[in-house]
Amino acid sequence: MNTLINKGENKMSALYKRKDSPYWWFGAMYRGRRVAQSTRMTNKKLAKKIAEEWDLNLILGKLDFIGHSTLPLFSDFKNKYLIFIAKRKSENAVTIAKGVLRKFNDYLMTQKIKRIEGITVRTMDRYTDTLTKTVKDENGGLMEIPVATKTKRNHLQVISSMFDQAIKEELVKSNPAKLASLPQRKDEIKVRENRLLEPIDLKIIFEGAGSWSLYYAFLYHTGLRAGDVAKLTYGSIDFKKRAIVSFIRKTRKIHEFPIAEFLIKQLPKGISKESPLFPDVYAENEVTLNGKIAKPRKFMQALLKAGSRPHATLHSFRHTFNSTLRDLGMSIEDRQVLLAHASSETNKIYTHPNFNLASDYVNKVPKYIIKRSNNVAIT
Q1: What is the number of H-type helices and E-type strands within the chain?
Q2: How many CB atoms lie within 10 A of CB 107?
Q3: Direct distance between the N- and C-terminal alpha carbons of the chain, in angstroms, rounded to an integer
Q4: Residue 188 lies in a domain
Q5: Is the overall model pTM greater than 0.90, yes or no?
Q6: Res 375 pLDDT > 50
Q7: Strand 253-258 relative to strand 350-351: parallel, antiparallel, unpaired?
């Protein structure tokens, strides 16, 4: 039995026989992983000479003689990596990493790639090409379309971080995720969609909003994301405190925000708490929700186009709200809270530290005349 010395640790290697093989086998532990390799020798003396050479190779870190047998399965390393980052990253970051790496692992299984060193730049390019999402078609059916380039980039960033850790642990020498390419989709809009809405844009939108006026007003005066506003119910409104208390999808937490006084006045009292504020866009299912939100988005874009204004999206309201609060003097820290940016805190209502101050700022946001379908005007 030979003694391996590796970075100050004693490692034992041995020769042994297996019932399913006529050869002597070499066995050892290398950096916490078991090495098992046939010497292809039936003569024990010759096998010992080979074992001595392999002992030295292990000490020097030369693993070519055993191929990939010392390197872990990707699924095993993935699980260990997730445990590792769980102690170092936010809950939200870990949740995202779990989803991405689970999807990536499923793809590797279809390609019969089991070990981390078998992942190449070509593997990464092909993986990003397979990423799709489910959307509704014009007939109400479901269809798969490629995800946005930004989503592909997010996947690569998660996988790249995992490879960086693998390099630190000396499992691989390079990071293929950093070398992957993201082709430009021909159908992607090349202009900056989420631009700030200028006063002229807001005037055009609200004067022609029609039945969407209150929905647009909530986007503009709360800074909430379009999907989060669409899912509001009357139970989300604390009329006494003048606040919105709602679950925010992106942070996966309950948040509390001050709501502008004039918005409160537009909401009828005595409505069931389960009733949605905006029935035309309300949906429990995410796919259905995205399809419904497309209606006010396209309507707004048609208004801007008719007014010879640049393209914009519903998310532009959020950017405009943030910019307006900044111009009014609200600090970036307070705006981050008010806009419900992701936080590492869990299971708590995310309340603004100075609710009254935040309410003052929200009520200072410039108002535009909003025409309601019931002929009630907001000023």
Answers
A1: 13, 12
A2: 16
A3: 89
A4: no
A5: no
A6: no
A7: parallel
